[in-house]
Each structure stands twice: as C-alpha cells, then as structure tokens.
Amino acid sequence: MNHRITIIKDGQSYETFEDILPKGENSKLDMLIVGKTPTPDSVKVGHYFQGRNGKSMWNKLEEYGIITKKTIYHDDSLLDNNIGITDIVKVPRSTGNEPSLFEYLEGKEHIIQIINRYKPKVVFFVYKPVIENLLPFTINANIVYGFNDNLMTNFNGCRPFLFPMPGTGKVTKEIIHKTMTELKVFLTSTRND
C-alpha cells in the first residue's frame, strides 16, 4: 500500500500524500500528526516521512509505544493506533524550502477542519516552524518541546505537542525522554475516553 495521490494546485499537477484519517461518520482520533510538506523522496516511496529526520520521528513513536507498526512503514498502521496524519502544505518540497506565510494560513484552515471533525486529544507537530507559522500573530507564545497547553485555545482545546526532533535545536536525550514519556502517559490515560 502507498499513500500517494495526485492533486491540482494553481493549474499544475502534483503527486503528494493523501491525508490518513478515519472514514467513519463519528470517528475520533487520539492524535493528529501535522507535518510541514511532503518531500519528493518520501512521495517517490509512497509513505510519509521517509528521510532521516522522519524515520527518527517514527522510531521514537514506536520506541515509546505510541505506534505499533504492522508493516515496514509506520504510516500503514496509523489508523490501527487511532492516529491520523496530514501536512500543512500538500505540494512537495525539498528540505529547507519553506512554505510562504500565505500557504501556512491556507493550510491552517485545513488543519482546523480536521481538528473540528476528529477532535484529536493531541495535535502532534513534527517541526517547530509549522506551529510557529500557524500562529504568526500569537504574542509571546513561548513554544517549547513537548506539550504547549498555553496554545490549546488555538487548536479548539486539543493539546498541541511539539516533537523534539533529535539533532535539531537544543534537543537533548533528556528532553526527548521527558516529553515522549509525557505523551505516552497522556495518550495511555485517555485511550478509553
């Protein structure tokens, strides 16, 4: 199975990823993963986050028991773990090629629609620039790795979580362990709600 689809944007055709979301009318999610934009290499493979950083994220989610995978690709098992995934911008870009503020604002509407429909307990942001650009006018947001409960009102009461990507910023093994443990404990305690 792969998750590629073709979209038309501004008159051009692009291969990208479909959102992986439940199909049921009253479906809810425990967690929604929000990426920035697919990379061309991942789109070629047909699976989300196949670069070095992306695989690191999948490995941490598996290591902390948040995802149990059933195939070699983690995204094939998301719905079995009550997790969905989307990107803020669907047109693929190479790493380091940032979307415009307009694209972020346009993508925010899509993210809020998904949040309103599926009411995830956690909105899991893979990259800090995504959450920063979704909230460009939030003064003193003080975005930290892990849970950012001070921003819950921006995401309709869902708990925003910033993934501590290994090898970026001031991420240490201690920060990764602390935040990922907090995520696991929270999801475990709310899975039967």
Structural features, described:
The protein is an alpha/beta fold and 193 residues long. The protein has one domain: Uracil-DNA glycosylase-like domain (Uracil-DNA Glycosylase, subunit E), CATH 3.40.470.10. 32% of the residues lie in helices and 17% in strands. The chain has five helices and seven strands. Strands 4-3-5-7-6 form a five-stranded mixed sheet, sandwiched between helices. Strand 1 and strand 2 form a beta hairpin. It starts with a strand and ends with a helix. The model has no long low-confidence stretch (mean pLDDT 91).
Widest sheet: strand ordering: 4-3-5-7-6
- The whole-angstrom Rg is 16 Å
The ordered H/E elements are: EEEHHEHEHEEH
Q: How helix-rich are the residues, as a percent range?
A: 25-40%
| Quaternary structure type | single chain
The CATH superfamily label reads Uracil-DNA glycosylase-like domain
How many structural units, i.e. domains? 1
Overall mean pLDDT stands at 91
Cα distance spanning the termini: 31 Å
Gross morphology is: globular
CATH topology: Uracil-DNA Glycosylase, subunit E
- Strand runs, count: 7
Query: Which architecture per CATH?
Result: 3-Layer(aba) Sandwich
Low-confidence segments, given as residue ranges, are none
Q: Which strand-content bin applies to the residues? A: 15-25%
How many helices in DSSP terms? 5
Q: What is the CATH class? A: Alpha Beta
Structural class, please? Answer: alpha/beta
Query: How would a textbook summarize the main sheet?
Result: 5 strands, mixed
